Amino acid sequence: MSSTVLFRRGRVIDPRNGVDGIRDVLVRDGKVAEVSEALLPVPSSAEVVDASGKWVLPGFIDLHVHLREPGEEGKETVLTGCRAAVAGGFTAVVAMPNTKVVNDNGIVTELILSRARAANLCHVYPAGAITKGLKGEEMAEMGELVSAGCVAITDDGRPVMNAALMRRALQYSTQFDVPIMVHEEDLTLSAGGAMHEGPTSTRLGLRGIPASAEVAMVARDLVLLEETGARLHLAHVSCEGSVRLIREAKRRGLRVTSEVTPHHLILDDRAVEGYDTHAKMAPPLRSNRDVEALREAIADGTVEAIATDHAPHGVLDKLVEFEKGINGIIGLETAFSLTMELVHSGVLPPKRAVELLTHGPAKAFGLPGGHLAPGAPADVTVVDPSEEWTVDAHRFHSRSRNTPFHGRKQQGRVVQTWVGGRKVFENGQVGLSKESR
Ligand SMILES: NC(=O)N[C@@H](CC(=O)O)C(=O)O
Fold first, then answer.
1. Which residues contact 27 (CB under 8 A, 6 or more apart)?
2. 109, 128, 143, 335: least CB-packed within 10 angstroms?
3. Catalytic one among 29, 309, 384, 392?
């Protein structure tokens, strides 16, 4: 196993450590050993990666993926999800608990972790459920979930409609200092809706989900957060109103963090025209004005992470009338290039874009990695910022194909992914080289 790697002359962007410039990065025994402006001597037996013209980045961290195992292995497994992750430059993912055996107890958490160890590709951090069976009725064993390895507690896919239960969960979570991650949707407001409520839903004749379905719940949970002093993480924020409330809560010092998905930053509700179920997800694609507000919020630091909400589904789940289509799209293998669309169009400077995929999410959940200082894990993603390619869903490593971005031209591509100093992805191929297995 080549335990020494030298990344030569790449543009290293490491927002946490204020680095943005041409550097050599030396990796030894799974950790970053040195980052140098000057050329480093090549240690004997080192693997040398010529990174000139490339960006050398901390491995990306995705706070929000659905790996579907246990229970829906036809859509994704921990292994195929990890393959998709490293192909997308992600070296760590947080796995949502809405599997078909819900991750609401330590046994399921351990199963996911053992599958991740067997996959041996990237870090998988399970998130455990807030309530048993995601039913919103009775709290799950939070202590057991955290000691089994859950890094966040969430009913993602479902809101906790009962405010008293939510308040208790927030209160209880302070004992473990674990973030409570919320899918904000007032079911009485979203009921029957298939897309964002606005002129487009009226034109298409589809029942709408008003922005208030999200914003009202964000408001409720920020009030509960203030009373409990917990940590709240808002999943897949989609509207202007939510952003305004988060900004104000942060100003007052509340411990709130949040994430936005690439699709909510790139597409608006007009993507639903044509009734393509690949544009159907929860929360729905919102108005252009919401998209603008989200873009502002990721640029100014109101939102700390871009997370994919990678939600694999089968062909038949999507090949139905719009109203019957299942919610969700996959995102691991397009997240970086879609983020680069925001860089190329001037919405985000490169350093901020990288921060949203690395240090931002690491800090929000207190995860290792997300930067490249000496001593940090050698989780490294090498990208070509200008390579042009066209998204081809058939070539994804994910087991599913449900993306609205098939056929979209992209500029910026992941070239290599390294986890703990081992190369796990290179030029379209996933897997460890023989020496590092
Ligand atoms: N985001 C989605 O559209 N789908 C998610 C669950 C959810 O958050 O609704 C899924 O698990 O498929």
1. 4, 5, 6, 7, 33, 378, 380, 418, 421
2. 143
3. 309
Give me the residues paired with residue 382 across strands: 56, 416
pLDDT of residue 3: 87
The pLDDT of residue 432 is 72
Q: CA–CA separation, 194 vs 173, rounded Å?
A: 33
Cβ–ligand 1 contact at 285 (below 6 Å): no
What 3-state class would DSSP assign to 149?
A: coil
Domain 59-365 carries which CATH code? 3.20.20.140
Query: Which residues are annotated as part of the binding site for substrate?
Result: 66-68, 98, 313
d(CA 359, CA 303) in angstroms, rounded, equals 12
Token pair of 183, please? Answer: 């899918």
pLDDT in tens, 14-49: 999 999 999 999 999 999 999 999 999 999 999 999
- Class of 4-56+376-436 per CATH? mainly beta
Atom of ligand 1 nearest to the CA of 312: 12
Q: Which two tokens stand for residue 392?
A: 């081809």
Which residues make up each annotated binding site for Zn(2+)? Answer: 64, 66, 156, 183, 236, 309
Mean pLDDT of 65-74: 98
Decide whether any atom of ligand 1 lies within 6 Å of the 371 Cβ: no
Q: Give pLDDT tens digits for 277-312.
A: 999 999 999 999 999 999 999 999 999 999 999 999
- CB-facing half-sphere around the CA of 380: CA atoms within 13 A: 35
Q: Where are the domains of the chain?
A: 4-56+376-436, 59-365
Annotation says 309 is catalytic:
yes
Q: Kindly give the distance from the C-alpha atom of residue 25 to the centroid of ligand 1, in angstroms, as a whole number.
A: 38
Whole-number Cα distances in Å, 142 to 127, 164, 342? 11, 17, 38
Distance 327 CA to ligand 1 centre (A): 6
Question: pLDDT value at position 313?
Answer: 98
Could you tell me if the CB of 155 is within 6 A of ligand 1?
no
pLDDT digits (tens, 9 = 90+) for 325-343: 999 999 999 999 999 999 9
312 lines ligand 1 (CB under 6 A): no
Ligand 1 contact, 261 CB (< 6 A): no
